[in-house]
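Before relying on records like the one below, remember that each one covers exactly one chain. Contacts with other chains, cofactors or solvent are not represented anywhere in the record.
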Amino acid sequence: MQDKQLVIGRFAPSPTGPLHLGSLYTALASFLDARSQQGLWLLRIDDLDTPRNIKGSVESILTTLALFGLHWDRSVVYQSSQRAVYDEILDHIEARQLTYRCSCSRKMLASAVYPGYCKDRFIAPDNPHALRIRTDPRMISFHDELQGWITHHLAEQHGDFILKRKDRIIAYQFAVVIDDDRQQVNQVVRGYDLLDSTPKQIYLQQLLGLKTPRYMHVPIIIDRHGYKLSKQTRATAVDLTAPGMVMFGLLVLLKQQPPPELQRAPVAELLDWAVLHWNPAPLRYSQSIDSPLQIRSPV
């Protein structure tokens, strides 16, 4: 009988500030999904967008994850150390004529779907340009563990998307595909806000002959105004003074129904319970969850 494949999950935060409740919530979901299957959970720092990186954020992220018992396997991977790998693979893609240079500015583009202005233009390599992938009329379908079957017409819904930005920074869509393959990630648990990125990434996986991971997009936490908790909406950093109470609150938000007697339990005990009882089914078909104003220890 064939051995069961080892589950490998990951969490890939950007070092643009301390973790807020929404990012810790996603990290916890990813951690529980991997650990409940006796799998590995890896940590990757998405630090390619250097203008947005904030000094001290990496240390803050590592400290917060450790405080909440979310201990990662293997060494932390930094995307910034993989630039030579990205460039080499991009060169191969360019040699196959699957990309083209694009000099369009954001101001020129009124639509979210790129209309292909530069597809048949010659742009000299030394002129400022982004690098776009040529999409074709194929349909991309995949089964999300929570959101069900998703089907996108890539060319119509996404168009020719960017692999390398005009400022020479590797785009998220490309880097994440290469990183997941190199780390042998076969299970991706992340927020619903990234669901639209998945068809693009699967398209790249197909072009490059890479395996497609299993995907699970958990609902995002929104504030009282209906906005996703994020650094852009000034979400506050996670309260580090009462990790047990924050962990209990996160399990409630994940609809895991932790027993009331664990409300004052230490983090390690809560995680042991959560790994044993992990059940993402109550989150099925949910896109967002309202956030409490605070999750902290009661007086």
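The chain has a mean pLDDT of 91.
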